[in-house]
Write a structure and sequence with these properties.
Layout lengths: L6 H11 L41 H12 L11 H4 L46 H4 L1 H5 L8 H9 L2 H11 L5 H13 L7 H5 L10 H11 L16 H4 L14 E2 L12 H5 L8 E2 L21 H10 L10 H4 L10 H12 L17
Bound molecules: heme C (HEC) (2 copies).
Length: about 375
């Protein structure tokens, strides 16, 4: 059985009972979708991602997901698509502290970049969702994003010629919300960013990819905090939370989440707002730093406009007094890193080497319409 129980599936079931008049022709149910091998999507150096077993990639499935991602008919007044807030030129984030959804309403957090999601176990800043096929329904129904009713959406898709064709090609089905979520899951999982100079350099094999400043930045990023007699450190220990070839913490036990000391007491509770546990207050998903030069402003609330401001935070303004600060940062003993101007410049140069300009131009992820 591919259908599990869930609110959205109950809606699906409800609507497949009421016979909508549509032009679906049963004789078309002969199309075989073209399988796409995972080795054609994911680079060897990233390792094998943990993929859903019941949603194999097909060319048609990925393409259908891409159409849906770019289609404003997923919103009530057909004005907002996923791509309104997730724009390819900004690595699928957008340059706003909070996004605008339908009717000019604002989101409460900054839109996140979308790539290498196949290697992430938890989604959203507060890590509240662990499956992409489930996630896609959140922005669709959110009153301040797309404000769509699922019933109305299914009806719209069922009447739409191009969706009748592509749901048939991808799933041998008439348009329905469950297969919609699978197609979008396929597209989201297929978004891979791997071609930055940082990726060619990592884990240090091709030193010639980086210039002298970037290379010094690499040592600061990957060095442990260790104060000398003058109170200076050679390392800033960024790698514990943003390490590896995806510049993202991959420790599944941690779920890739942490409190990085932004506030003494946070307004937005982050993971704590979901779990209500003391130890999760002010804890957020530690994002990948790939493409970080493209995704300003920074942090869940977009409080930092530049990478300079981000590095000033980690160097000079960490709130060590916050009770849930990550142990790796608590281990600095409450002392600010006080990076020199040169160290800050080098660290930022290294972060800028993580930009993948082929990803933001790759036609596979571009608007298909
Ligand atoms: C109105 C702007 C807006 C729209 C429209 C929108 N998003 Fe988002 N997206 C956001 C914001 C803001 C966040 C962070 C939300 C949070 O953490 O609570 C986010 C987060 C995400 C994430 C989590 C990424 C991660 O690394 O955890 C995914 C995946 C995503 N969106 C996909 C989509 C898809 C698919 C659609 C269309 C169905 C969509 N979004 C529509 C603004 C938007
Ligand atoms: C203890 C874990 C941890 C360490 C160590 C850490 N970070 Fe972070 N980083 C996070 C978390 C968590 C966030 C998201 C916080 C939020 O938005 O509330 C973040 C966010 C960021 C962002 C913004 C990402 C975005 O998409 O908005 C940048 C840039 C960044 N960190 C760079 C660094 C650098 C540079 C270092 C080393 C000086 C570093 N981080 C050390 C956990 C960490």
């Amino acid at each position: 059985m591919k259908r599990h129980v869930g609110i959205w599936l109950m809606v699906v079931a409800l609507f497949s009972c009421s016979k909508e008049e549509q032009a679906f022709d049963d004789s078309q149910k002969t199309y075989t979708a073209t399988p796409v091998s995972t080795s054609d999507i994911f680079p060897m150096e990233f390792g094998a991602p943990n993929l859903p077993k019941d949603n194999p990639f097909t060319e048609e499935g990925i393409y259908l997901g891409r159409m849906l991602f770019y289609d404003p008919i997923l919103s009530l007044d057909s004005s907002v698509s996923c791509a309104s807030c997730h724009q390819q030129q900004y690595a699928f984030a957008e340059p706003l502290d909070r996004s605008f959804g339908i009717y000019g309403l604002r989101t409460s957090r900054s839109a996140m970049p979308l790539f290498n999601l196949a290697y992430s176990q938890k989604f959203f800043w507060d890590a509240r969702v662990s499956s992409l096929r489930q996630l896609v329904f959140e922005p669709i129904v959110a009153h301040n994003e797309m404000a769509m009713s699922l019933a109305r959406l299914e009806e719209r898709l069922k009447r739409n010629k191009k969706y009748i064709e592509y749901f048939n090609k991808a799933f041998n089905e008439e348009p329905n919300l469950y297969d919609m979520s699978l197609a979008m899951e396929q597209f989201l999982l297929s978004m891979v960013s791997k071609d930055s100079r940082f990726n060619r350099f990592f884990p240090g094999d091709n030193v010639e990819e980086l210039n002298a400043s970037e290379l010094r930045g690499a040592f600061i990023f990957n060095g442990l905090v260790n104060f000398d007699a003058n109170g200076n450190t050679k390392g800033a220990d960024c790698f514990h939370c943003h390490g590896g070839e995806m510049a993202q913490q991959q420790n599944p036990a941690m779920g890739g989440i942490a409190n990085n000391g932004l506030d003494a007491s946070p307004n937005d509770l982050g993971v704590g707002g979901v779990t209500n546990r003391d130890q999760d207050m002010g804890v957020f998903k530690a994002p990948s730093l790939l493409n970080i030069a493209l995704t300003a402003p920074y942090m869940h609330d977009g409080r930092f406009k530049t990478l300079e401001e981000v590095v000033d935070h980690y160097s000079d303004n960490v709130h060590y007094e916050n009770p849930t600060i990550h142990p790796q940062m608590a281990a600095h003993g409450g002392i600010q890193l006080n990076l020199s101007d040169q160290q800050k410049t080098d660290l930022i140069a290294y972060l800028r080497s993580m930009t993948d300009s082929t990803f933001i131009q790759n036609p596979k992820y571009a608007n298909p319409f």
